[in-house]
Amino acid sequence: MGKHILNSPKTAILDSLSGLAFLNPSTEVYDTTLLLRSPSHDRVHIVCGGGGGHEPAHAAFVGEGMLSAAVSGQVFASPNAGQVEKAIGKLSLSKGVLLVVKNYTGDVLQFGLAKERWSATHLEDDSVRMVIVGDDVSVPRSQGALTGRRGLTGTVLVYKLAGALAAQGASLDEVEFVAKMVAERCGTIGMGLEHCHVPGTEKGEAYLKDDEAEIGMGIHNEPGIRKVSPIPTASKLVDEFLTTLTSTDSDPERSYLPFKNDGQDEVILVVNNLGGLPELELGVVVKEAAEWLANKRITVRRAVAGSFMTSLNLPGFSLTLLLLPRSPLTPPPSTSSSLSLDTPLLLDLFDAPTQAPAWKWTFRGEPEMRVIKEGEVEKVGKREEKVGEEVKGPKPADPKLFLAALEAALKSVIAAEPEITRYDTIAGDGDAGLTLKAGAEGIMHAISQNKIPSDDVVAAMVACSAVVEKEMGGTSGGLYAIGLSGLSKGLLDAAKEKGSETATPEVWARGLELALNTLYRYTRARPPSRTLVDPLSSFILTFSSSPTSPTALSHAIAAAHEAAEATRDLDAKAGRAAYVDQEKIREASVPDAGAWGVWKLLEGVQKAVDRASKE
What we know:
With 615 residues, this protein is an alpha/beta fold. 43% of the residues lie in helices and 12% in strands. It folds into two domains: 322 residues, Dihydroxyacetone kinase, domain 1 (Rossmann fold); 220 residues, Serine Threonine Protein Phosphatase 5, Tetratricopeptide repeat.
């Protein structure tokens, strides 16, 4: 996407930081640096930074318990050494400053220059140190031998764990040691469905085809290690990524982390949104990662998902694993620290509270995924459902035709899904076709399982209503479920009124009238309203006017078709289309998607009746 909401690309970083400072009053902006207003003098402070465009990194991780300052450059451009020096100066009256930067040449050079300048003017002062994070495992060892691994989402774990330790009053040696150990034991790999767009640049042609994805992407629009087509499923992507992250010495090009794969490995999992992936899809990735790790007997001690290190609006994700140590790690003898870095300490640091606004809420304990499958629910205290068995209704006059007409109606609306979806995309929210298809396919499946009786129209309507309620959801699902429930009761009452054990045309007519009245209790839509009520009411009223006529059904279906077509020229008075620009709808001259769905169902019924009359 090449559209942005900015004042100017030149002021975007400063404007964004100012907005963040407003939301987090414990911070202030100082020359495109966000830092704590009142930093403590009796603790170590962590300073990070890099180019903008990775929001919420880095500035939104400034807060007690994480970072003390974040120095931002322009989009995908490192800040200069002078900016970094100013941040160091603001925090220098403390127990030390640790610079944490991603392994990108510009960041390393500018932060390194700032550190060296500080050392040159403070000759006896070793209070400023630097840790470089490189956690990308997508690039083979031989290919990245000179430049090293790129810094990705693992950097945020360094912020969190080292920042929590610093907040506890640890020494500079100890904070630096934890930061280095976390960086060394982190691995990240990501993918994208397209490159992002940098504000202020011209929108170019699509980098990837519609059916392509790229594996191993960085966070600055760098090409990945390879393109794949068609786009793999979430399951296949997660399998490839986690296989790469957990590879052992048998793969010397990839075995960056010392996994044993013996059932005793423990990790912290981070699922990162690279900026443009819907939360729905991110949840699918989390589920797949959880299942994969469980199947490989790798214990996830903590997990978090969300946007941590983005690439502007790039639609993609990355997976990060921090391999927890099996035995305590200790600082080198040259330091004065007696810190013992073990898994309990790392988990405590992960769980430690922070005021950094971008850190996601996480469950303080081992995550667990429990999905109750159908048939596993305990029946104690629960009424066992007997859909279609509790009340006997009238039989269809022709059971074979009844079922054939129902199947034809369902197949008709399934085939019309692309057409209905197109109409709803223009005048609604774009889900009508898929919602109707889901309900129709659900009933088709129930028919194949003999769960829709053909010898009792009431039981059949009750069963269809239950399927629709489960499979469709949303407004249309609710309306169809209520309508079918109303029809089942209407047919039952009509059969009693007529004293008939068969669903005669008169019984159907009266049952349909009662069903429409039931539906009207739950929707304000009345014809003409540019909703599914238009063709439905036309069908029911026309059929009910002379149900015994040989042409009653065909005339009623034709009336429904006419009403559905007429919605092309109507202003919406109800439904989601009522909130859409009516001029746009009139220009498009498309029928209401819901109304068209009703017509397609009835069209299928008509075809089934026509076929039966020719046999």
